[in-house]
Amino acid sequence: MTTIETFKSQAKLLRAHLSAIHISLTHSQSLEAVAAMHGHRDWNTAVGASNSAAEVVSEPELPLVVFVAPETTEDELRADVINLLRRAPRAIRFRLDTGITLEQARFARSIATDVEQVDVRVEFDSPV
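User: That's the sequence. What structure does it adopt?
Assistant: Structure tokens below.
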């Protein structure tokens, strides 16, 4: 979620909360209030700051890497992938060691399929 989407969501929550206690606010007023809470002069300044920050972060994010070695168990691989997913990556690369079994390659592919279901790109590579 981008900063502006987050701000819009916060403005919607603020407006709903205040409405519940009979304080009416227009959508524009709630956007201005959220911008001020985040240290911006007004909504347009918040949008401009967000756009500038987005331009700076234009480099693609490198995939996080999980290693599958001959001694890696399915439980260990699942735990490693879960830990990587907590970092909210855009991609995870499964690096397969040359000494792994066919069964290990299959469970790596199975876990990769689960990862793809949460909109994280999956890559595979091996030194072969």
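Helices lie at 3-20, 27-37, 43-56, 74-85, 102-116.
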